[in-house]
Design goal:
alpha/beta; 35% helix
């Protein structure tokens, strides 16, 4: 989707939609999974109604503000995109679209056009106090009933990240040797590692020195 890529998925399908042929050539060379589609999201999402459970988009929405000709407008392209995306999602379907607005006005326009198409939700901002690390996420839900109960997640901040790291460190310090070994074994099993020893009452015990 757009110049960088767009993904829409459900339990069976994964699509990437792009507007440049060069991007598709790179994707074919790398043998990416899923089907590839060449189109402009400003013209809409070309899928049947209710086709998908969710949509993920990375660094795309801001390109809809670039009109290809004087006869097109960013408002029209945005509404066309959101209205067809709303149709392509199942009722209650979610969409998370990460984008880089040039101004606060663009963020407001994006949210307004999404709501006009029928979406509920809001914009989440990670690291709002940082110019370099700041990221915008448009979190949407399709359907009026679902949108009334949907609440967007809170954005990350430098302070919350520091607290999370500190909490992890404190938790590790409080772990006993046996708890640490048990946690590592569970992690290896989840990753599918073979040869992980079974747990026993001797797990984590210090062995006697042998002479």
């Amino acid at each position: 989707m757009g110049r960088h890529g767009h993904s829409a998925l459900d339990a069976r399908y994964f699509f990437r939609q792009r507007t440049t042929f060069n991007s598709l050539e790179v994707a074919l060379e790398r043998q990416v999974e899923g089907d590839l589609l060449l189109s402009d999201i400003g013209d809409g999402i070309p899928f049947r109604p209710g086709s998908f459970d969710a949509c993920i988009s990375i660094s795309v929405l801001q390109w809809l503000f670039n009109a290809e000709s004087s006869q097109t407008s960013s408002h029209r392209r945005l509404f066309r995109f959101f209205s067809t995306l709303y149709s392509a999602l199942k009722r209650g379907g979610k969409a998370v679209l990460q984008f880089y607005p040039e101004t606060e006005g663009q963020s407001a326009t994006v949210m307004a056009e999404a709501k006009r198409a029928g979406f509920g939700g809001g914009i989440v901002i990670d690291y709002p106090e940082s110019k370099k690390a700041r990221k915008y996420y448009l979190c949407l839900v399709a359907g009026s009933t679902s949108s009334s109960t949907f609440s967007a997640p809170k954005g990350l901040t430098e302070q919350s990240e520091r607290l999370t790291k500190r909490q992890k460190m404190e938790k590790k310090k409080q772990e006993t040797r046996k708890e640490f070994i048990t946690r590592k074994k569970e992690l290896y099993r989840k990753r599918g590692k073979e040869g992980v020893p079974n747990d026993s009452k001797y797990s984590g015990r210090k062995r006697r020195d042998r002479f």
